[in-house]
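Two quick folds needed for the group meeting slides. Do the first one here.
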Amino acid sequence: MPHGGARKNAGRPKGQGKFGEPTKPVRIPTSLIASVIDFVHENGYILPFYGHKVQAGFPSPADDYIQEKIDLNKHLIKNPSATFLVRAMGDSMIGAGIHSGDVLVVDRSLEPKSGKIIIAAVDGQLTVKRLLQKNGQSWLMPENQDFPAIHISSTQDIHIWGVVTNVIHPV
């Protein structure tokens, strides 16, 4: 009985894995594993983007072709070195489409302007609210009438972490 080497019909059939194509094992030095994983995460997965639009009303037959590949990083993240993700908790922003458990894409490089949704630390507690600046005063406004607005005063310790650019909302 032979030992080692290729055996007929052994292993997973080519093209049947997660990626639908043959794969190849790659050896990476242990010291470089974290760098390779960071590189993969920074560049993200490229997902198929179908050219056919999906009807939100009456159903329409779908096309069976992929128009292009789409990189979600290019659509969701404009400034990678200044962007982070954070999970929303609570119901104060449901009127803005932000629900508890949603993932928020936050860009630290954007200027927090009145009307923008921001992440702020208020007296050491993180919150997501809409910034309102009016008549020389600033407020952190909820998008739910059951929650009070937060007046930003000089006595509070406020630090704005960034501007929310996208919401990833599971259905």
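Then this one, please, same format:
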Amino acid sequence: MALARRSFLFSALAFSLMAGGCGWHLRGHVTLPFNTLYVNMPINNKVAADIRRMIAASTNVTLVPEAEGAEAILELLSSGRHREVVSLNMQGEAREYELTLNMTFRLINPDGEEFFPPTTFTASRNMYYNDDEYLSRSAEENVLYNEMQQDLISQLLSRLTTVQGIESDEY
């Protein structure tokens, strides 16, 4: 039993040393340069729900239900999914796809002045296609798009930390 415990502790220590060396760390609390935000997107939109959840969980910002009570307004101007064939097999059928997700956001104040102009965030992943796994292809594709969406929302949060020109009463 002591040998198994020692092996587990050694493995945990090795992982933490390797993870720390590569720059990996847990996501923490992000301080944004404004205190209130209105997310100008439909309530039942998955992207909007993920953005609201991430902002509520990991920032200092209070989400407000109306634009009038917000220091800043976040808008999703466009989003798109694209799938392109990257390689073919010997029969000329698709063997590998490149999946791309684009989202364009802007941040404005209640008067319509831009804190940052329309900015497009892009992520892409390669998906290998196997004829034997035809039924799982769409599930894998959805998983990859969800991963990309989370990456883009994280990029958006990072971009929001750099916003300047917002005058807040608390700062």
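Slide caption for protein two: The two ends are 56 Å apart (CA to CA).
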